[in-house]
C-alpha cells in the first residue's frame, strides 16, 4: 500500500500541476488548480513540438518492438527446442550480452555509424545512419535481443514437448508449430518482454540524444529541451503537461497488460 501511494501521489501531483495557470505556481504547490488550463497541453503539443516528439517516440518504440520480436521469438524457440552445433556457445554469448550496458557503448556505436555515413556520402550526402529514427529502432532492438531471447528461451523450455509432438502428428510444419502452438502458450512471457522492452525504448535518453542530434527528437530529449525553456520562462504548466504526455502511454500500456504480466511472473511456464 505504501509503495502504491509513493507512486500514485507524485503522478497525481504532476497531473494536477499540468492544469494550473502560470500564476498559481507562485503559491503553495499543494493547492488544487483553480481551473482546467488545457491550453498547457496545446502549447506543449504545438508550440513546444511535443506532439512531433511523441510521434517520433511512438514510431521508434513500435518499430523496435517489431524488430526485436521478429528476431528473438524464432531464435529463442530454436535454442530451446533444437540441438545444433554451437548452441551452447550461442547461449553463452547471449548471457554475456545481458551484462553489457548499452549506455556504456553508445559512443562506439555513434562513431561506427558516423564512419558508415562517411563511406556512403556519395549515395547519401545528407547522411543515413545518424539522425535516422529507424536506425535508432534497430539499435534498440539489437541491444535488447540478449534479454529477450534469454527470457523467451526459458519459457519455451518450460512448455511440455507433447504439444509439439501432437501438432507434428497432425502434419503441422515447424514454423506453424511455433506460430500456432508455442507462441500462444508463451503469451505471458511475450507480454513480459514487450513491457520491459517498451519501457527501455520509451524512457531512453542517452542513446536517443546521441543518435538523433537533429530536429527529429524523441519525447525524452524533447522534454529536456522543454524543461530548459520553461524553467527560464517560469511557465511550469506547459512543462508539467509535457511530463504527463510522457507518463500516460506507460500507464495505459501497463493497465492493458498487467494481468498477463502477473500471470507470466507467477506461472513461470506451463506445468506438465
How does the SSE layout of this entry go?
Elements: H1 2-17, H2 39-47, H3 50-81, H4 87-97, H5 106-119, H6 133-158, H7 162-169, H8 174-185, H9 187-202, H10 206-211, H11 219-233, H12 236-267
3D architecture notes:
The chain has 272 residues and is mainly alpha-helical. It has a single domain (33-269), classed as MetI-like (MetI-like fold, Orthogonal Bundle). Helices cover 72% and strands 0% of the residues. It contains 12 helices and no strands. It has helices at residues 2-17, 39-47, 50-81, 87-97, 106-119, 133-158, 162-169, 174-185, 187-202, 206-211, 219-233, 236-267. It is globular, with a radius of gyration of 23 Å. It starts with a helix and ends in a 5-residue tail after the last helix.
Amino acid at each position: 500500500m505504501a509503495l502504491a501511494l509513493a507512486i500514485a501521489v507524485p503522478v497525481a501531483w504532476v497531473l494536477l500541476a499540468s492544469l494550473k495557470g502560470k500564476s498559481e505556481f507562485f503559491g503553495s504547490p499543494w493547492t488544487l488548480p483553480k481551473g482546467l488550463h488545457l491550453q498547457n497541453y496545446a502549447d506543449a503539443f504545438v508550440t513546444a513540438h511535443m506532439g512531433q516528439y511523441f510521434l517520433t517516440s511512438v514510431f521508434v518504440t513500435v518499430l523496435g518492438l517489431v524488430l526485436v520480436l521478429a528476431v528473438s521469438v524464432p531464435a529463442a524457440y530454436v535454442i530451446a527446442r533444437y540441438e545444433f552445433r554451437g548452441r551452447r556457445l550461442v547461449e553463452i554469448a547471449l548471457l554475456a550480452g545481458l551484462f553489457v550496458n548499452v549506455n556504456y557503448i553508445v559512443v562506439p556505436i555513434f562513431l561506427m555509424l558516423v564512419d558508415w555515413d562517411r563511406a556512403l556520402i556519395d549515395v547519401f550526402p545528407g547522411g543515413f545512419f545518424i539522425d535516422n529514427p529507424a536506425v535508432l529502432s534497430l539499435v534498440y532492438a539489437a541491444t535488447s535481443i540478449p534479454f529477450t531471447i534469454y527470457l523467451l528461451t526459458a519459457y519455451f523450455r518450460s512448455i511440455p514437448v507433447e504439444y509439439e509432438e501432437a501438432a507434428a502428428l497432425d502434419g503441422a510444419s515447424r514454423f506453424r508449430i511455433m506460430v500456432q502452438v508455442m507462441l500462444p502458450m508463451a503469451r505471458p512471457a511475450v507480454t513480459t518482454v514487450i513491457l520491459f522492452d517498451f519501457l527501455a525504448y520509451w524512457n531512453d535518453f542517452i542513446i536517443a540524444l546521441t543518435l538523433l542530434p537533429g530536429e527529429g527528437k524523441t519525447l525524452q530529449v524533447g522534454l529536456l529541451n522543454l524543461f530548459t525553456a520553461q524553467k527560464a520562462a517560469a511557465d511550469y504548466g506547459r512543462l508539467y503537461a509535457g511530463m504527463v504526455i510522457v507518463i500516460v502511454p506507460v500507464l495505459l500500456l501497463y493497465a492493458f497488460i498487467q494481468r498477463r504480466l502477473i500471470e507470466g511472473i507467477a506461472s513461470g511456464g506451463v506445468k506438465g
